[in-house]
UniProtKB/TrEMBL annotation:
This is DUF3293 domain-containing protein. It holds the Pfam family DUF3293. InterPro entries: DUF3293 (IPR021710). It comes from Hydrogenophaga atypica.
């Protein structure tokens, strides 16, 4: 629940409004609370029933340098590869605020609890979890 979080309400609102773009073929965007037929198609193609959209960038919303964020993303990609997970590159970008877009991954077949644990490990305030219905939901981690 948003009110139980230590995350600033304005930041939580921004997460809810963000467009989570997947650089798939074709590219598409996930929106919190809205079914994604493109995501459901990926589920069928890869025979999975869940996914998560997460980043290693800007831990706890502290802006890092581009190089630091690239290193964190590389580390996240290595972890996903070690786990033999299928992932697509993406970017989370609010449509109107000044926060820079964050390089991210859509990880197919990553269940909710495992995604939350990974997000916490990479010091994220929140991640996006998608269940079998193809509806992205915001999961606050703090």
């Amino acid at each position: 629940m948003l009110s139980d979080s230590v995350i600033d309400p304005a930041t939580s609102r921004a997460y809810l409004e963000t467009h989570y773009r997947v650089h798939g073929e074709p590219p598409f965007a996930l929106r919190i609370g809205q079914v994604s037929h493109s995501l459901l198609s990926l589920y069928m193609h890869y025979d999975v029933d869940c996914a998560a959209f997460l980043t290693g960038c800007n831990p706890f919303s502290r802006k890092l340098t581009e190089i630091e964020n690239q290193e964190r993303q590389k580390s996240l990609a290595e972890e996903l590869t070690r786990r033999s997970l299928i992932f697509l590159e993406g970017i989370g970008q609010h449509p109107s605020n000044n926060w820079p877009g964050e390089e991210s991954f859509l990880v197919l077949g990553l269940e909710h609890q495992a995604a939350k644990t990974l997000g916490q490990r990479f010091e994220q305030n929140a991640i996006v979890c998608c269940g079998a219905d193809g509806v992205p939901q915001l999961a606050l981690l703090r």
